[in-house]
């Protein structure tokens, strides 16, 4: 089941390499996952892998050979190539020598926010891939029903985002929508829109949250945009007790998510 | 006040470059801070800068020239060098072209845990520089009085750690101590030792914390070590509501710090 590829001009190599760019990922609705750990998570989550690439070194470890058997049992096509060509298909320097190409569906807001949903996270121009991945992972842990990414967020299929999600990229209900559609759907579904905002007197732990909450987390440098602040039902801030000027966006979203979750359980 | 250096064999260049290594930083008790933002934070915090290096491009921006004036008014020695030599003094690819060398003091546990302290954070083998920096920044925000780094933590003067602290490296009372000394001093000072631990029934938000808490955060992969778990007064866990296997160490420390702080305010 393993096919050798030794030319960098091979079509499969060229196609895979093209998926390192956001533009091509969006055209093809495909993305790359890289590394042994994330591939095992993908298999555990029953993610359909289109195909797998390994390099010359991958089969040197016993646990990797067992994993090849699992892929073979699932009839997943495996291509083996040189370390050099493999290196061109990934964005990291240290590699375990395995990647897979996976398809994704674009989820629209009207069909993916359900009446039963109680907890939604709205992300407004989150820029840092590590923050985005960590926020997705934390939202999964905190029992968030859907994440809505507004325009201007970093691509969630960026390899650094995927690594930071630690597998939650495969589970989470992540929607891309305009701010207008987001507000329409959430208001129709009776969500309380809660934004983190520095210029408010409301501390996040002194608010009585409603039974359906949409929490908005803003851009790392500029916070939540003005229009979304105006449309919010509740503004909250996290106190700073020491000398730090602010909290990291992933950290503040985690503190808020876990506090709000207490009132929804 | 600006001295030109054009040779990579210059003693100041060689000395500064040597500080990229942990071993040399510890021998000299000096570290490098890099980037315009962190240097402005250092000046705001009244940190003593030993000297500054800039590259050929730094003076092209108006705000940078103003900053040079501030440095001149403080009689801080500035060395200007080529972009190529400057590039060898830093660990990043994108640079704003400014760095400073700063001294640090080693803080011992007996003199730096005070009887008035109420909230201490103990870090057990935190490995990832981004996590370490974010934990220091969050601890500063959450009003932690001291951070105790046990053996096996990443060097806090690693450039990636410093960047992630966003200036809190200059403010925080960070102590390096053995586990034995840490337990002795904290127990003598009547701290409740609280460890995050997966195999407990205690949820972090259902515990009545005492009025002096030392929170222990463990290694990213392996958690808190066995002996420290045995010596802990209280074990707590954060619930996972979704499919995520775990939380990132910086995220879980933030959720716990802000929850514990509520009972200490």
Poorly predicted spans of chain A: none
- The CATH level-2 architecture of the largest domain in chain A is identified as 3-Layer(aba) Sandwich
Order of helices and strands of chain A: EHHEHEHEHEHEHEHEHEEHEH
N- to C-terminal distance of chain A: 48 Å
How much is the average pLDDT of chain A? Answer: 96
- What would you call the shape of chain A? elongated
Overall domain count of chain A: 2
Label the structural class of chain A: alpha/beta
Let me know the CATH homologous superfamily of the largest domain in chain A: SPOUT methyltransferase, trefoil knot domain
The count of strands of chain A amounts to 11
- Biggest beta-sheet profile of chain A: 6 strands, parallel
Query: Numbering strands along the chain, what is their spatial order in the largest sheet of chain A?
Result: 8-7-6-10-9-11
Describe what you observe in this structure:
Two copies of one chain form a homodimer. Chain A is α/β, with parallel strands linked by helices and 265 residues long. The first copy, chain A, has two domains: 2-103, Ribosomal protein L30/S12 (60s Ribosomal Protein L30, Chain: A); 109-264, SPOUT methyltransferase, trefoil knot domain (Alpha/beta knot, 3-Layer(aba) Sandwich). Helices cover 37% and strands 19% of the residues of chain A. Chain A is built from eleven helices and eleven strands. In chain A, the strands form two sheets. A six-stranded parallel sheet of chain A has the order 8-7-6-10-9-11. In chain A, β3 (49-55), α4 and β4 form a beta-alpha-beta unit. Chain A is elongated. The N and C termini of chain A lie far apart (48 Å). The relative contact order of chain A is 0.14. The mean pLDDT of chain A is 96.
